[in-house]
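Example 4.3 (complexes with small molecules)
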Amino acid sequence: MLIMIILNYLSKLGMIVVLTNLGELIDGLGRIHSKGLYHGGLGSESNYVFIGECLKVINIKGDLDEFNTDEDRENKKKEDITDLLGMLDNWFESILAGGKRSWLECQHFFDFVNRAKTLNLDYDVFAKKVACHPFLLEADGRMSLFVEYDRRRNAPTTRQQVAVALTSSSDFANFKSWNSTSTVNNMDSYMRGVYNHRNYSGDVEDLLRYLRNLHHHYHEHGLAAGSMEIVDRGVTTYIRGFLEVLYKNLEI
Ligand SMILES: *[C@@H]1O[C@H](CO)[C@@H](O)[C@H](O)[C@H]1NC(C)=O
Ligand SMILES: *[C@@H]1O[C@H](CO)[C@@H](O)[C@H](O)[C@H]1NC(C)=O
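Answer. The structure with 2-acetamido-2-deoxy-beta-D-glucopyranose bound is encoded below.
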C-alpha cells in the first residue's frame, strides 16, 4: 500500500488513493485497539512487511489488559499511533526527493502531528484529529472543511474563536492579499467565475467565504469544473496551504 502511495505521488496520478490509504492505516490501528490489543513496537521497521502492494503490521505484542490503569492503556494506544506516524515521517523524509518540504501538504501533516503530540490530548481525540487531517481526505472532504469553518466563522458560539485565529496567527500572513490581480487572472475560469459573482475583499475572512461559495456553487449549480477533484486541485494550486493552516489553527 505504501509503495502505491509513493508511486501515485511521484507519477502525480491518483492523489486521492494516496491520502485515503494513509487514513486506512490509522483506522486499522484503531481496530487493533478496539479488540483490546496494542502493538508496542511500531517505531521499528522490523515490525512492518510489504506483501505485494500492501504494508502489513506484524508482531503485535500484547493485550491491553496487562495494564492496571485506564491511563496506562490509553497511553499505550496513543504510543502506537505516534510510533506509526513517526515511522512514516522518517520514511517520507527519506523517500521524497528534497524531503517532506518538497510536498507542502505532507510537511503540514507531520507538523500538525508533532504539535498535537505535545498537547496531551486523550487517545480518541488525538486519533480523530490526526485521521481527519485534510492531507488524508479526498477532494470532497477537503472542500467540505471550508464549509464547516465558514459556518463556525458565522455561528455565535464559535465566531470569536475563528476571528481571533484568523487575525492573530501569523500563519495567515501569506494569504492576506489572496485576491491579487495576478492570482485572480491566473485562476481557472470556474474559480474566477465564482470570484466575480460577489464582492470579495483581500481579507482572510473573505477568502474563507469565497472557498465556501466555491463548494456551494459546485453542489448547487453544477459548476463548469467537472468534478470536485478539479475544484480541489485548483484551490491547492492557487491558495496552497490555506486549508492545512486553518485546520491547525481551528482544530487544536
Ligand atoms: C460590489 O460592490 C459595489 C460597490 O459597493 C456595488 O456597486 C456592486 O453592485 C457590487 N457587486 C456585486 C456583484 O455585488
Ligand atoms: C481585492 O480586494 C480589494 C479589497 O480588499 C479590492 O480593492 C481589489 O479590487 C480586489 N482585487 C481584485 C483583483 O479583485
